[in-house]
Structure formats: C-alpha cells, structure tokens
Write a structure and sequence with these properties.
Blueprint (H helix, E strand, L loop, with lengths): L5 E6 L5 H6 L3 E8 L2 H11 L4 E3 L16 E4 L22 H14 L6 E7 L9 H12 L3 E8 L9 E8 L2 E2 L4 E2 L9 H8 L3 H4 L4 E2 L13 E9 L2 E9 L18 E6 L2 E6 L2 H7 L12 H9 L4 H16 L4 E2 L3
Parallel strand pairs: 1-2, 1-4, 2-3, 4-5
Antiparallel strand pairs: 5-7, 6-7, 8-15, 9-10, 11-12, 11-13, 13-14
Length: 335
C-alpha cells in the first residue's frame, strides 16, 4: 500500500466502501466519519491510523496531511433522497457537505487542494428544491475555478441492486479530449443530469464537462426479490410489498429508509418460499468481498451497508476516469 501511486482523503467514510472500490492502487492519507459505530467497522477492515471520528465541522485543515490527488465525499443524503424529507442541502444532515467544502477551500488557499474531488450523493440532489440546490453548488464551484460534470451511475450495471447515484467529478485542469464528450450520452447522462445542466446559468455551464465513461459488460440477471417500500398515496405514507423479477433487488437503505429488509423468493414449481435478505447478502449486493467484516448485529450491519456506496461503481469510476485524469499528460494546462 505504501507504494500506491495515488493518494486520497475519504470524507463521510462510513465503513470504507469507497476505499474498497478504489483498491490497492490508492493510499488513504486521511478518513473521517461522525458515526462511532461505522468507524468501528472502518477500523475492523482498514485500521484506524488515518481515521478521525467526529463532526466534519470540527476538523482543522491541519489534520489533513500533504496534498492528496483526490478528495472523496459521500456526504449524508437523507435530506435529499427519496427516502428522506427532501429538505435539500440546507437540511441538518446534508449541511455537513458545507463543513467538508470549507476544508477544501482552506486547502486551496494553502496551495494544496486535491487535484480531483468526487462528490457522491443520491440523484435527488439534481432536482431538490426544484434544482436550486444543485445550481447553487455548481455556482460555488464555478466561482472557485473548478471544472465539473455529473454522471448518474446505477449499481445495477455491476451488481443485482437498483442503486442510482450521482457522482460530481471536479478538476482544476482542462481534461484531455479523450476523457470527455461533446454532449450527454447514455447510460451515464440520464434526463436528470441533462435537465440539471440545462438549468445552470450560461456562465456556470462554461465550467461543465461531459465525462466519457465506457459501459461495463452485461451481468447475470437470474434473480427475483421482494422488498418493502414506502409510497405516498393521497398525501399519506403507506408501506407496500413490491415483487420484481427483472434480476435486480431494490435499493438497500438503512433500517429506517423503507426497503432495507428485503426478502428473497424461491419458486419451485407450485411452491413459493421466502426469507429475509441477510446482511452478508446485502454486502454482496454492494460489491463487498466476503472477507469484509460486518457488525455483529443485523441492524448495525444493514445500517452500514444501506448508507454506503457500491464498491464496483467506485472501481469503474477510478479505472475509467479518475486514474486517467491523474496520469501524466492526461490534462491540458488550464488557461
């Protein structure tokens, strides 16, 4: 690990699923999470030498060593997710993002801002508050000289779980042409990304980049699942059981998020049996290896994986975009 060519800071680290996805070619310089129980899992799997447990607002830039190639931030999503109350980035939990961003701003003033930043969140960020949150975020980035673009990646491309997430990739350098596209392209620039970009002021859009990502190979789709989902009907919330046979499980969420306790159906002729999805099976849906150590209790394990990022998605982004951006000659000098 000490010889890894790329370095990073990991914010809102949870159990270190982004770290798992980045892999051995990356060396963590610093990690942070507010949740002590998640931090225990992080230590169990990755050690605690670089882990700081506490509120991101309480962190001093002096705690962040050197200059990292990448800052990864999977900031709390409950205030903008479909499972939350859609309070937007001003919500108490999602406002943690601005605690993270003040650190990046300070590092920038010190001349040691990371070369790349990845902001991961639910796709609801693209249209929360009518798109105002995303526009305000992009205006901040443009004022500070960042070039950026969003991709929407569903974990279902890699694992049998529907888990669409938005990844906003930031760079200070003008990227090489082979890493960009002239316009949006499926499957990573869906209508939500296109509409969010279209709402940006023209001056902000000049900072936008349509990132080029290759689609992964098709995967096996032999799966059926049942999951509980909260639906709003006539202005009231109702819990419903939904069955799908399209080879994709519902999005794993925390135990309070509506569909974390999913069930598997086994259909054998006229017989149909069901059982709840185990935490280990949930971890596999997140692309985690069986060697990954989960919390002892089911609730804690489901909370950990329900708040995480799918590791194969991170690996694909690293392989297709982040690592190429950091290689010598992959960027043009910014004017």
């Amino acid at each position: 690990m000490t010889g890894a060519p790329f370095t990073y800071y990991e914010f809102f680290a949870g159990g270190g699923m982004a770290r798992c996805g980045l892999g051995d070619g990356w060396r963590c310089l610093f990690a942070n999470d507010f949740d002590a129980k998640k931090a225990e899992s992080y230590r169990e799997n990755w050690g605690g030498d670089h882990l700081a447990v506490g509120d991101v607002w309480d962190l001093s830039p002096d705690r962040l060593p050197g200059r990292a190639d990448l800052a990864w931030a999977s900031s709390p999503c409950q205030d903008v997710s479909m499972a939350g109350k859609r309070a937007g980035l001003s919500g108490a939990r999602s406002s943690a993002f601005w605690g993270f961003w003040r650190l990046i701003e300070t590092l920038d003033r010190q001349g040691r801002a990371p070369r790349l930043v990845v902001l991961e969140n639910v796709v609801g960020l693209l249209n929360s508050r009518g798109g105002g949150d995303f526009t305000a975020l992009c205006e901040t980035l443009a004022r500070q000289g960042w070039r950026f673009g969003a991709v929407e990646v569903d974990a279902a491309l890699f694992t049998p779980q529907s888990r669409p997430r938005m990844f906003l990739v930031l760079t200070r350098d003008a990227p090489a042409a082979h890493l960009t596209l002239p316009g949006p392209a499926a499957p990573f620039h869906g209508h939500r990304v296109v509409e969010a970009q279209g709402r940006l002021p023209q001056a902000v859009r000049t900072h936008w980049v349509w990132w080029r990502l290759a689609a992964p190979p098709a995967r096996n789709q032999d799966l059926g699942a049942v999951f509980r989902r909260m639906r709003i009907e006539n202005g009231q919330q109702h819990q419903r059981a939904e069955v799908r046979f399209d080879g994709v499980a519902g999005c794993l969420r925390t135990p309070g998020g509506g569909s974390s306790r999913q069930m598997l159906l086994v259909v054998d002729g006229p017989r149909v049996r069901s059982r709840t999805l185990s935490p280990r099976e949930g971890a596999r849906l997140m692309g985690l290896p069986d060697s990954y150590r989960l919390p002892a209790t089911q609730t804690a394990a489901l909370h950990l994986i329900g708040d995480g990022v799918a590791a194969p998605v991170v690996r694909h982004l690293a392989e297709q975009l982040l690592e190429p951006l950091l290689l010598p000659g992959a960027a043009l000098a910014a004017e």
